[in-house]
Amino acid sequence: MAKTIIGEAVESGAAERAEGRVTGERLRKKAKNLDGLARLVGGFIPPEIFAGERDRVYSPWVTFVAFLGQVLTRESACRNAVRHVQAWCLAERRPVPDENTSGYCQARARLDLDQLKEAHEHLIQWFAGSGAPASWLGRQVRVLDGCGVSMPDTAQNRERWPYAGGQKPGCGFPTAQLVGLFSLATGQLTRFAFADWKAHEIPLARQLVPWIEPKEIVLADRGFCGWGFIALLQRKQADVVLRLHQLRRPQRGRVTWPKPQRSSDTWDQSLWAELPDELALRMVTFLVDVKGFRTKEVTVVTTLLDEEKYPDAAIAELYRRRWAVELFFREIKTTLGLDVLRCQSPELIEKEVWMQVIAYNVIRALMCEAAKVHRVAVDQLSFKGTVATLRQWTPLLAPALFVSRLARRELLRVIAADLVPRRPDRSEPRAVKRRPKSYQLLSKPRHEMVVSHSRNQK
């Protein structure tokens, strides 16, 4: 009797697993049939992680793809996303939703943040399995930096992310800070930490340490050159190449930094006690002989003590490559629009940030695939050109078109052919030629300005 019951339970479990696989496969095929963008993204992110309990027009996967399309088109309104879904419904001979954006906005609010994090995790796994080359001398290099972002001036956003210093009430914008950990080889944004503008970069960077692997090298500017942060990375058996902080005196060769007498309030005291009593480091100073560059001498501190394996010239050349992270952030902020977020509530702001990161990594994954297929250097491909190419080629990737497979191959060829010329040591002034319009600046909340302006006219 017991064997019969166990046998029935095993058969029942096998049947459930088989039914789950069939359901997952059906969902996968249905999800990829949305349009060309859905089919392309479905190659990097499994659609079944966005499985919904109800058969809605704005299902989680449809909402995710529409939201992603918004992010890939800077300043794209919710109205454009609704038109996107309407066109797909018409092509699939399904009921076409009305023009009201309310249903789509509610669907974005329902979108599970954990699903977005899982989608990002699948992208990171794709990069890990893509066989990306080492960044420098056989070592993987992670480059670290931070940036600021602003968002709509709503009461909810102000409560979570207050104004930056010096902004008058009603005249400024809630401001946040993002610290990102990038791969120098592929440009992917591996992890990030997000907080209000008052948070220092180093405590945010410490949140990213668990995702730094042993033997990796962390490359960063002087803002991250802190004793505790270096010690924490050494504890992970990772190395650093950091520009020397301006408050420390430059030296040459090997140096020893003793442990500070006390840590800041942001440190857990038990963790601080586990750190070593001193750090063995090496300082490398090199000259910057480039016309137009403000800095003429740079000193970096590193845990790479082997001068034969890592000579000074190689350390200097690696630090010069740190500028790549400025370009990575420019692509996210300027090309995709992370510098000015648009959602009205903290919950949606957080989802928008995750969508920006996913969109950025999807483009990076596409560039890596094109570089691998056509054997070109990924750092020579144009990010902005890839985004523009994808926008134009997405309709050809739709599953209903017989040319979709050919279109994907041709898409990779076009991306690989759009090479950016190498222009080392290029120097241009931070200036614009076109003059801005001479509008009056807000000196008080807008509704008060409107009232005073009306009185003056009378």
Tally of contiguous helical segments:
16
Kindly report how far apart the N and C termini lie. 96 Å
Q: Kindly state the mean pLDDT as a whole number?
A: 85
**Structural domain tally:** 3
Which class of secondary structure composition applies to the elements? alpha+beta
| Low-confidence parts | 1-10, 12-25
Got a strand count? Answer: 8
How much helical structure, as a percent, in the residues?
40-55%
CATH topology of the largest domain, by name, is Transposase Inhibitor Protein From Tn5, Chain A, domain 1
Please list the strands of the largest sheet in the order they lie side by side.
Answer: 3-2-1-4-5-8-7-6
- Radius of gyration from the alpha-carbon trace, in angstroms: 26 Å
At the first level of CATH, the class of the largest domain is Alpha Beta
Q: What is the approximate shape?
A: globular
CATH architecture annotation of the largest domain: Alpha-Beta Complex
Series of secondary-structure elements, N-terminal to C-terminal = HHHHHHEHEEHEHEEHEEHHHHHH
**Can you identify the CATH superfamily of the largest domain?**
Transposase Inhibitor Protein From Tn5, Chain A, domain 1
Content of β-strand = 5-15%
Instruction: Give a short account of the largest sheet.
Output: 8 strands, mixed
